[in-house]
C-alpha cells in the first residue's frame, strides 16, 4: 500500500504511476455490459463485428471503473479518496478483450476547500494506457484530501 | 424498448425519463466496491460509519454505471449509444443501500460531427434522483447518433 497522503503532501506536477497493469477479459466486458451498459457491442463478439466498434469493446464505464481501481491502488489518500467531481472524461480508443490497462496520474491543481475547511481539493489529470502505450481514456477529476493540520 | 432514434430525431429541450427506478442494494455496493473502488466506506457498514460518508455508500462509479443502464433503457440510439465524452459529472449526495435511482435526460445541444460526417453529436444533461427526488448525480455527456440520411 502506498504511503497515506494528506492535502499538504500534494503539489502540482506530482505524478503517480499505477503499480501494474490490469488485464481486461471478454468475460468481464460482457458481465459489466450486461449489468450496466447492455448494448450489443459490449455483450457479444458477433454483434460487435457489425457495430461502430468492429468487435467486442469494453463499456467506457468499465474502463472508468478499472481506472478508479488503479487510482485507489496508486494514490492512498488519508481517510479515502472522496470524489469531488469529474471535469472531463474522454474515451480515445476502444478497450478490447486482452488489453492491459495502466495509468498515470498527475496533480494539476491544489486548493483549500471553501465549503469544507478541513479539506483541500486536489485536481488530477489521469491518462489510461493500453499495453501499446496508447491512451484509451483521459480524465480530469477532483478529490478531497484532509488537511493534516485539521486532523492531528 | 423505446423507439430507435437517429440524429435528426433529437432537439434541444427534448426529455427522456427512465422507465422506472433501480434499487441499489448493500450487496451490489460491496461487490462493485471490492472490484473497482476498494475503499472501506464502499465495502463495510462499520468502516463506513467511521468515514466521511457516515455509513456504507455506493462508489460514485457504481452510480455512474447505474445511470448508464437507465440511459440505455430510456434512449434508444440507432446502432447504440456511442459515448463522445463526459463534460462534467458531479456526485451531489451519497447513494445508500435501499435507495432507488431514476433519471431524467435533457438534450441541451445537437450538432453535426466535423470528423465523422455520418454522425451527429448529441449533448445531454442527466439528473439522477433518489426515491426522495433529491439529485444524487448530475452529468453532461455527449454521444454520437447516426444521421438517418447517411444510413438509409
TrEMBL record, chains A, B:
Domain MaoC-like: 13-121
Protein name: MaoC family dehydratase
Domain of life: Bacteria
Amino acid at each position: 500500500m502506498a504511503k497515506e497522503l494528506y492535502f499538504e503532501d500534494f503539489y502540482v506536477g506530482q505524478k503517480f504511476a499505477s503499480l501494474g497493469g490490469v488485464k481486461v477479459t471478454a468475460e468481464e466486458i460482457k458481465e459489466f455490459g450486461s449489468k450496466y451498459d447492455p448494448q450489443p457491442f459490449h455483450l457479444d463478439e458477433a454483434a460487435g463485428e457489425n457495430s461502430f466498434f468492429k468487435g467486442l469493446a469494453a463499456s467506457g464505464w468499465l474502463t472508468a471503473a478499472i481506472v478508479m481501481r488503479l487510482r485507489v491502488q496508486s494514490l492512498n489518500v488519508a481517510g479515502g479518496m472522496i470524489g469531488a467531481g469529474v471535469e472531463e472524461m474522454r474515451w480515445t480508443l476502444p478497450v478490447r478483450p486482452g488489453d492491459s490497462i495502466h495509468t498515470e496520474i498527475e496533480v494539476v491543481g491544489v486548493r483549500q476547500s471553501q465549503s469544507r475547511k478541513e479539506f483541500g481539493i486536489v485536481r488530477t489529470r489521469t491518462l489510461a494506457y493500453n499495453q501499446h502505450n496508447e491512451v484509451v481514456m483521459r480524465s480530469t477529476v477532483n478529490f478531497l484530501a484532509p488537511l493534516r493540520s485539521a486532523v492531528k
